[in-house]
Specification:
Aminopeptidase, 238 residues
């Protein structure tokens, strides 16, 4: 691992996920991580974009909870099986983390729908490449094709024990196919095939409805910030 600077804590700012809360992050820059080094940080609640590694360090809140699916014990629910059946005509490929213009164009299409009700703007091409195609650890893409056309892309990091979903984009014109859920189901299956124990799904906030899908992949584990241990949840109310 090549550390590119010391760990720091960002200034407080308005939390984008919980109204009325302030947020800040512990962060550092690093490159050339091995699978085991990446797992060490994932297992302690860190996430990453490119060379930027971060985790919440909020003063009065611990509601951003790292969540990971127990891959070897996971079994799709009835509704998830319907999504798999609905999308059985989709071809899936796992490819190296290499930038292509069609991926950025799909991101712009996805972002136009995602940011339609906010003042946020999609990343420029340079920002997109820096964030998602600057490789600092073992990484790859999950690519989804319908009739030969790219319709979704997942950005995955590979650790010694897991597969970490960093970002997922899809064609909003195909929203009825539930491609976000379908992508996660396929990536969980991929993690199982390559012998990993966990599928990291990022942070989960119970009161944030846009994150509700994350607690549907049972069983999953939640990271306890106080004890720094992972606790298994077998249904969303446990």
């Amino acid at each position: 691992m090549n550390l590119l600077g010391p760990r720091q804590v960002s200034p407080e700012q308005v939390c984008p996920y919980i109204k009325g809360e302030l947020t800040r992050h512990e962060f550092f820059l690093a490159a050339a991580l091995s699978e085991s080094e990446l797992e060490e940080f994932l297992s302690k609640g860190f996430r990453k974009f490119g060379i930027y590694f971060f985790r919440p360090k909020c003063t009065n809140c611990q509601k951003c909870l790292p969540l990971r699916v127990e891959v070897t014990k996971f079994s799709p629910s009835k509704s998830q099986r319907r999504i798999l059946k609905k999308n059985r005509d989709i071809e899936i490929k796992y490819t190296p983390l290499i930038y292509r213009e069609e991926i950025y164009q799909l991101y712009l299409k996805h972002s136009k729908e995602r940011f339609s009700h906010t003042n946020d703007e999609p990343a420029s091409k340079e920002e997109f490449i820096q964030t998602h195609f600057t490789q600092s650890a073992p990484s790859l893409l999950s690519e989804f094709y319908l009739n030969g056309h790219l319709i979704a892309v997942g950005f995955l990091d590979i650790s010694s024990n897991g597969v970490s979903s960093m970002y997922f984009i899809y064609d909003p014109e195909l929203s009825k196919r539930s491609l976000g859920i379908f992508g996660a189901l396929c990536e969980i299956e991929f993690a199982h095939k390559v012998g990993k124990l966990y599928y990291y799904l990022g942070y989960y906030i119970e009161e944030n409805t846009s994150m509700n899908y994350k607690n549907q992949f049972l069983p999953f584990q939640i990271f306890n910030w106080t004890s720094e241990t992972w606790e298994t949840q077998r249904n969303p109310k446990d």
